[in-house]
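A further point concerns the way the authors explain their paired sequence and structure data. Nothing conveys this as quickly as seeing an actual entry. An entry of this sort, consisting of the sequence and the corresponding C-alpha cells, reads as follows:
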Amino acid sequence: MRNRDQGAGRVRFWLPGLLLVIAVALSACQARTQAPTATPPPPTATPAPPTPTPAPLAAAVAPVTGLPQGSDGLGWWNNTVFYEVFVRSFYDSNGDGIGDLNGLIARLDYLNDGDPATTNDLGITGLWLMPIMVSPSYHGYDITDYYQVNPDYGTNDDFKRLMVEAHKRGIRVLIDMVLNHTSNEHPWFLEAQQPSSAKENWYIWSTKRPPYLGPWGQNVWHKLGDRYYYGIFWEGMPDLNYRNPDVVAEMDKVSAFWLQEMGVDGFRLDAARYILEDEEKQASTPETHQWWKRYDAAVKAINPEALLVGEVWTATKEAAEYVKNGELDMNFEFDLAGAMVDAARNRFGASVGTIQNAVWKAYPSNQFAPFLTNHDQNRVMSVLGDDVAKARMAAALLLTAPGAPFLYYGEEIGMIGSKPDEQIRTPMQWTAGDNAGFSAAKPWIAVKPNYATSNVETEGAAADSLLAYYRTLIHLRSDHEALRVGDYTRLDPGNSRVYAFLRHSAQENILVLINLDDVAVSDYQLTLPPSALRGAPSPVDLLTKTPLPAPALKDDGSFNDYRPLSELAPQTAYLIKL
C-alpha cells in the first residue's frame, strides 16, 4: 500500500528511526492527495507502439500453459519473475496523460514477447498490478467499487483483453486486492453512517472514543457525528468488519468475480496483518490468522492454482507464520529486502548472508517473495546514490536469491525517486524524447530528470547497461532450474565483502559468488559443508561462458579452500554452474 506499515513496529531499513516515523506520518496525511502540479517538458506527440486490435473475448480467459515446472513440485510462482506495475504511470495509450490498460497491453512485448528464443525482452513471467478498481484517489487503495475497473484505466473488457494478451506471452497476472478497508466514499460506508441501516454493521463503530492508539501510535478512531469509526490507516479508509458474515460473503464474492469472470491468476493482499482486531491488539491477531486460512480455502476452491501473496510488513519470524500455517502461499520479505539493498550500498556481504540464511530456514522451501524496494519505499537507485555499479549488485542479489522475486517497474533502468509517495510512482521512462515517451500529453505527474539517459530505448541499445544486466539475469534464472526452485546453502568465503552460496536442485548446482566491494578481492576461499554434490564438476561461469577450475570434492560432497578465480573483479557477480 502506501508507506504506512513501515511505521507498524520496526525501524529496520536504511532510514534513521525518527525520519521513518516522520515519513509515515506524512504519508498518511497525503493518502488521498491527488498528484501535485506537474511541469514536464512541453508535450509533443511521441511515437507509440500499436495497441493490439481488440479481439472478441472468450467466455473465460485461457490459463497459462507450457511454463517450466520444477522437479520438486513447487508452485508455478517459483518459476516466475514478477514485475510490479502502477498502471497510471506505465504507458498512456489515449493521450490524456494517464497510463491505462491498453497502454500496458501495448508494452507487453517489452516485458515478454512470448518467444523463448529471443532475449531482447525483459523476460518476466508475472505481473502485479497496483489497484485498478474505482477509487477517488490517484493511488487506488481506497476503493469505491470492487467490480469495475477505474475509468482512468479503461473498462472491464480492456482488463479481460489484457489477461488474454498476457497469457499469450506466458505472463500470469496478479491484482492488488484491498480487503481490509474501503474508501469513506464507498456507497457501503455512506449507508453505514445511518444508524440501524443494513450496512451499519459492515464497519466498526463506537459511541465513545476507545482509549488506545494504533500500532505505530496513530489515531485509529475517527469522529463522525456523535460516533467514532475505526480506520487503522486514516479517516479516508474505514476498516471493514469481518465479524459480520455478510461482509465475509461479499468480499468472497468480489474475489470470485476477479478469479472467474476476469481471469486473474491470484492476488497481492494489501495490509494482510490487520484484518481482525482485538481492541489494542491490532496486528496479526489469532482471528486474523484464522480468517486468512478460511480465505485461502475459499480461493483455492475456485482456482487451486491461484497465488495469494501477502503484504505482511513485519519481521521475518512473524511474517513466515502466515505461510507455515497454510494461510498464504507467500509473503514479501521486508527484512531480506533491506539487507539486500544495504549490502549493495555498503559493499558488505556478511550481513545479507546471515539474514538470507535465517529467511531460508523460516519459510517452507522457497515460499517467500524477495524484492529490493516497492511503491511504498524510496526507489532503490536513489537509496544507492544513483550508483549503477551498486544497482547491478542489488540486481544480482535479488535475481539469484531463493523465492519468487519481484521487481518494481523502472528498477531495471535505474529510475529514481524519494518520498512523498507520488514521487516514487512517476511515469515509466521509455525514451529520451518528450515526456520520456510515456505520453503525447502532459503526464499526470512530471517525469524524473534522469529520463534523458535512464530510459528503455537508450539502455536497450547498450550492451553494458543496467537494463541489459537485468535482462541477462532474468533469462538465466528462467533457463536454470537451480536458480528458480533450487535449495539454498550459504558458503563461508572467508571475506566479509564477498557473498557466496549454492543453489542446488535435482538437475543442477549453481555456485553464486558476488564481490560487493569496489576493489578486486583475492583473499577469499570457499568452504562447503557436506552436500549432494557428486562426481567431477566442470565449472563454467554462466555470465561469461568461461570455464573455471573445479573444487576438490570429497566423498561427502564437501570442499575446502576453493578459489574458482584467483581474483574477483570489483562489484562483480559470478554464476558458476558446477
